[in-house]
Design a protein that fits this description.
InterPro entries: ClpP/crotonase-like_dom_sf, Tail-specific_protease. It comes from Lentzea atacamensis. This is Peptidase S41-like protein. One of its GO terms (molecular function) is serine-type peptidase activity. It is a single chain. The protein is α/β, with parallel strands linked by helices and 299 residues long. It has two domains: 66 residues, no CATH class; 175 residues, 2-enoyl-CoA Hydratase, Chain A, domain 1 (Alpha-Beta Complex). The protein contains eight helices and twelve strands. Strands 2-3-4-7-8-12 form a six-stranded mixed β-sheet, with helices on both faces. Strands 1-10-9 form a three-stranded antiparallel β-sheet. A three-stranded antiparallel β-sheet has the order 6-5-11. Helix 1 runs antiparallel to helix 2, helix 5 runs parallel beside helix 6 and helix 6 packs parallel to helix 7. The longest helix has 16 residues. The chain is elongated and about 65 Å long.
Length: 299
């Protein structure tokens, strides 16, 4: 199994140098029987995950154990969840990630988003939330407890904050040496908030992956002021690779590339424009909005 993991790291991990280094370490570990003392499969997976992350500074890298046998065919990250798992992570009981959306005093829109659900599950909820928030004079989008999700929802929600299609981060796929570009959709259901009214995005160290994608791209486009603490630093989308009938590797095979900065947030996180403790970010954003001379809330 370790040899299979080493082969995958060497041939598919997004950073050639890091992948080669981790592959060498895995082969050395296998020869030295480093993991032999770990008889519990869950503990083994957790220890191997920690080892890979230490060597890569990549929070997307992970090894998972499944008591049930895994399918022999490869599955993509988007298809990895069972219907029950997708419902638990993205479904109606969590309101598809839309924890709260409301108009606060002074006509300030507030959206607390816990996950970026796939538009096929949550597009109608997104349209309802953004149509309400379109009436606001300023908007706060709270991603402080958002660990990621689907990039298609990133693009959809971002589209409501513009008047036309705008470029988002591209994705570079290392195995195919291929770059795929991305833009916000030109049409959205419901009402747009538009491109001129202020937007504040709240982040914390728990903000990760797709949530960082959203914050970083809006910041790069000059569309949002980011408030809080630096985010988790995960800009390497992953795929699932089967190592064994009961073990799977979450392998980062691609990286985000922003067309404006030519970079991303991997390892460093999204750096806030206004640095405050995460638990103070909402109050700070409200103070900033109310202090703006051109801003006139309706009370």
């Amino acid at each position: 199994m370790l040899e299979r993991a080493a082969d995958l790291m060497e041939s598919r991990y997004v950073s050639i140098e890091v992948g080669r280094s981790l592959a060498q370490q895995l082969r050395h570990d296998a020869a030295a029987d480093r993991w032999q003392a770990l008889s519990d499969p869950g503990e083994f997976a957790a220890a191997l995950t920690e080892h890979l992350r230490e060597g890569s500074d990549d929070g997307h890298l992970a090894v998972s154990y499944s008591a049930a046998a895994l399918p022999a065919v490869e599955i993509t990250a988007g298809d990895a969840y069972s219907e029950q798992e997708a419902e638990r992570y993205y479904g109606r009981r969590v309101n598809h990630g839309f924890e709260k959306f409301e108009l606060l005093p002074d006509n300030i829109g507030y959206l607390s988003l816990r996950v970026f659900a796939p538009p096929a599950m949550a597009g109608d909820v997104a349209a309802a939330a953004m149509t309400l928030l379109a009436q606001a004079d300023a908007m706060i989008i709270d991603l402080r407890r958002n660990g990621g999700g689907h990039s298609d929802m990133v693009a959809l929600l971002a589209a409501y904050l513009f008047d036309r299609s705008e470029p988002l981060s591209s994705t570079y796929y290392r195995p195919e040496d291929r770059l795929t570009t991305s833009n916000t959709p030109a049409w959205v259901p419901g009402r747009r908030y538009g491109a001129t009214k202020p937007v504040y995005v709240l982040i914390s160290p728990k903000t990760f992956s797709a949530a960082e994608h959203f914050a970083y791209d809006l910041q790069a486009l000059g569309r949002a002021v980011v408030v809080g603490e630096p985010s988790g630093g995960g800009a390497h989308p992953f795929e699932y690779r089967r190592l064994h009938p009961h073990f799977v590797l979450c392998l980062a095979e691609s990286r985000s590339v922003n067309p404006i900065t030519n970079g991303n947030w991997q390892g460093v996180g999204v750096v806030p424009d206004i640095a405050v403790p995460a638990d103070r970010a909402l109050d700070a954003a409200l103070e900033l909005i109310r202090a703006q001379a051109p801003y006139t809330g309706t009370g």
